[in-house]
Design brief:
303 residues; alpha+beta; Pantoate--beta-alanine Ligase, Chain: A,domain 2; Ribonucleotide Reductase Protein R1, domain 1; 2 domains; two-stranded parallel ribbon; 8 helices
Length: 303
Amino acid sequence: MNKQHGVAIVMAMGVVALAAMAATAIMVSQSTWARQRQLESEHAQALLIVQAGVDWVRAVLADDKRRGNVDHLGEPWALRLPPMPVDNGELAGHIEDQQGAFNVNGLARDGKIDLAQLERFKRLLNLLDLPGELAASLADWIDSDRETQPQGGAEDAYYLSLDPPHLAANRLLLDVEELAQVRGFDAGVRARLEPFLSALPAATELNVNTASAEVLAATLEGLDLAAARDLVASRERTYFRDVADFTARLPKGASADNASISVSSAYFMATMRVNFGDAQASGVALLARPDSKWPKILWCKTS
């Protein structure tokens, strides 16, 4: 009898232990579910703050346009502000002028390669110690024909040999991230080029008030990198008020006669980062600012 009683006690204890384990598992599951729902809610609110940040950038750019037609790096839109507090978090972001970079979509006009821009891109590649053949492969990716450029070009035959196979785009890039699909543009090449490139929906003028020394040297005939750096240092003291002011300050032997340049911009990139509670969110938006109009969002990516 005592033996049976002992077995019963052990069984009862086992049942209690199993019940306790089950109750603990349920509580952990519910806690995990509640935590997950909280994070999802906070992330959703963080994304809303990102969108509000992009609208704030649009307001800044619209106000800047009302104040004048010259865009330079001493203006409020170009300053990197410290993170701003928001309810239960903070918002950080910055604006970059996309017309201060080399617009890769200018390599083709109406589907045909622009030879002058192709040569400028080759000069930029050379200044950055990158292979000149990359210019041909990118031109083939953007132009509308299926004829392979010499010295590094790549059309459908090359891309169909890859795994997985695909075709050349034969259209303008929507974003510089698409360079990852182009022959030769590996991660190292893209990282080196990223600060100097943009991908805009049309051929654009280069803003000499915001362009880097490398892009200026690649764009203007007879301007070497050292002289371009001197120009950049000069504009930090006094920005270029118009194209005539810029050309007057060019060193001897440099010319802007065949270059498409300006001192104003219509395309900007807004980058936002939000911390909200324990969640984080980020967003990047390409904005177009027509004359005297509210900037448009051409595309926006959030995560």
